[in-house]
Amino acid sequence: MDDAARAVSPPVTHARVLKIALPIVISNATVPILGAVDTGVVGQMGLAAPIGAVGLGAVILTGIYWVFGFLRMGTTGLAGQALGAGQTGEVAALLTRALMIGLAGGLAVIALQGPLFAGAFLVAPASDEVEGMARDYMAIRVWSAPAMIALFGVTGWLIAQERTRAVLAIQVLMNGVNVGLDVWFVLGLGWGVEGVARATVIAEWGGLALGLWFCRDAFRVPAWRDWPRVFDPVRLRVMAMVNGDILLRSLMLQAVFVSFLFLGAGFGDVTLAANQVLMQFLNVTAHALDGFAFAAEAIVGRACGARDLPVLRRGAVLASAWALGVCLGIATLYAALGGVAIDLMTTAPEVREAARVFLPYAVAAPLLGLAPFMLDGVFIGATRTRDMRNMMALSLLLYGLAVAVLVPPLGNHGLWAALLLSFVARGVTLGLRYPALERGVAGAAA
């Protein structure tokens, strides 16, 4: 048994929380830069179709890869607990399992690209010219699917060990390589849309290579290739249950946001555009909070493995306190400068006016979304994924009821109210399940 190293968990300090959180916040801040460079480089071709093709193709592939996001979250919780329990062999074996799932998932995407892409274009139709270029783009980019999906597992494994600087380094390398090759392939060699795709493929495989290099210590432990352990039925079943719960929870959460946009479309093009502009405010909030949610995942996971309830509580409280400060700051900025941001994102007067009408909902969103966001991190670290799944199902039901009751008399105001109520419902229902999480840790420690 390799849990002899179980000991007192490292103390939870503000410095520890920030050491985990800040690299993720910086990493997330670099993501929009790549999209802007892709658009800018292709825009130098002087045609509209290539810009639309790259944008549409990237959105489709990102949506497909998003389905495998469970691998990042599940790996963080399980690896964090194994680390806290001193099970170094299991930590290494978890990396192997995550890589195998990621590579297999990527190969499945490559094999099924025909029906997957056809289905995507049915949902998001485009002109023949744009669709043709987008298909060419995706036919190249799909070959890095194994790298991108496996990288979810690598990222989760590194976060569990609180090595978020490594995660930042991976993102910086991928973005840097991508930007440099974009310029060379498109502007220098004249490869157009296919050049952007090739640059991304090379960057994504390079990111996985760097990630594996950061994981090199795990490959020095024989357990990473201890196949009876890697394929242990009990451990595989636990991993499957955790990942399955997270996948279902994520699909239900996505259903809320997708239905929000679809229902908003029913109020006309102006309202749809205004909602889309304001959704960017919510995206910024989510990216800013990611680091603190990841900090909660890592600290809680390790504390659960060590059966250290005081550390679990302090980790959850400190990470949430920093997240609260961030949310207050973001809400204040949105209230003071939201109109300026709206004007930067759109020049259409009617869209600007409509977005300002609904801006208060975007101001309230960070504060109402804090609890569910941070509790997600706590429950992921504790691998209480069944609770996450069930509470998300209940929140989705309450959202549907709110839409049915509020949208007919209030229109888009009712739709925004229903969305924010879904945040509150997730926070309240997960909060009600938190005592059971603590009892589970305390009972395991007894």
- Give the biggest beta sheet: none
Average the pLDDT over all residues and give the rounded result. Answer: 91
Number of strands: 0
Backbone shape: globular
Strand proportion? under 5%
Report helical residue fraction. Answer: over 70%
Count of domain modules: 2
Calculate Rg over CA atoms. Answer: 22 Å
Assembly level: single chain
Query: What class, by secondary structure content?
Result: mainly alpha
Which stretches are poorly predicted, pLDDT < 50 over at least 5 residues? none
Number of helices: 16
Task: Write the element-wise H/E pattern from the N-terminal end onward.
Answer: HHHHHHHHHHHHHHHH
Tell me the distance between the termini: 19 Å
